[in-house]
TrEMBL record:
Domain of life: Bacteria
Name of the protein in question: Uncharacterized protein
Amino acid sequence: MSTIHDQAMNYVYQQVLQRLLSFFSRAERTALQLLIQRLVVAAGGMDNVGQFKVLVHQSGSRDSCYTLALLRAAQLTIASRAPATFQLRVATLRWNGDSPGNLQNLHRSFSALFLYDDPRVELLMVDNREVLPFDHRTAVSNDGHEASRINLLLVGHCRTWIETPELWDDAYLATAEYYSQIARWNNGVDAMISTETRSSQRHFLEGLNRAMQRVAIAGPGLVQSGFEALFPLLDGLGDDFYRELRSDDERTVWRPEGEFEACRRTSFIDINDMMVGKLEDRWPLLGEFLGFEPDDLALYQGEALFADPLISAHVRGLYAQFIEGRAYQAGVDDYARNTLADLRRKQAAEPVCEHLMCSFENVGGPEQLRILADDYLLNGFGLNETQLVCLLFAPFIDGGKGLERFLRNCHPGMLVAMPDLHRAMQGLHAPEQVLKWMTEVSGLPVRLITRLYAMGPVQLCSPTEFASDDLDACEVGAVSHVERSTER
């Protein structure tokens, strides 16, 4: 029975491969053969390819679905020519920014490629530091949702009020920690595959460098090139990137415990050069075969991997209004103009630029943008506008140096309570209504505000300049050290 089942499944896999290849252009078929050669060489030859395990991260985005299709074609092509093929670990990080559309894209592409129940494929998701079988029907756990909300706020408060906020710094930390651990789980993987451009890899490393400095964990030295430096960097950071922000008894360990390799063996394989042809030529494969359904901003997949442009524009509008004393609209306009200029400087396709600007125009004006953004942040992240404005002022860190400015601008009626607020932030006795106000306005429990209060000032080191004029060939600069004092 087992032999009959195997023969039937092999026939199904051959049919999947033939249909998949029918969507490939001649250039893509050539790229596929080069990808196969690269994987076989990395495995140490065809005799070893059956023991070679590859990790690919999936977000449900257009490019991640296309990358998975390319890898699946390589896996099935080798299987049709040799006794064994490489193993594939497909993993996704669940977080509060997950959209139902992306999860459905993942499920449809997994189904179209017949990944479910293929013993050569692992389909995994990570939720609140727990590795689980992938299930598109499962929402982020309550504990995971709360941890993500708290981490976003904590990392966001680790800055001075004069710094333009980067709302998604926490996402860089969470993603990097996830890369480090998913590569070690269950005997680990041999290589991680990515089709990110050099500039996108650089952008991620820069964001990670900035976020690491904010949370006072050891920053890297000079990071050369791209993601080939990622795993050596992560190896020195431990398994908890938030350890300076939480006490030992508040930390969540990675689970299942005891199933993570102590010594990582993962390398990085860059296959961005395999992404051939024009974007519009991929839509038949994506839509007809994989069942990919784009959202309104699918054409705009910028380097800020976690940031919806409309939400980023909203944050910039609030910053202009509350910090700079300008109009909300002025901040939104600044963001849109600067983003468009950046896209054109990087020679993005004009339809991408036009689509981005149409997204702003279709919102219906600044007030409607504000309503939509408030709804998204409240429903997705549990973050209301009052708490977001508090984050912009970062009033708690470094002994509450920004507290008076925050109160004068946003809550002048609480100026009289400043002595009680400082006592509460030091962990001393304070009136119950003061403690309640702190929690409601910040979204953080008092114990974590106390931790922020005891932390020294954040002094970010700027990354080194890039010498090359070629954006995708430039070297990635990183901070050489972290200057930060922390009172315990």
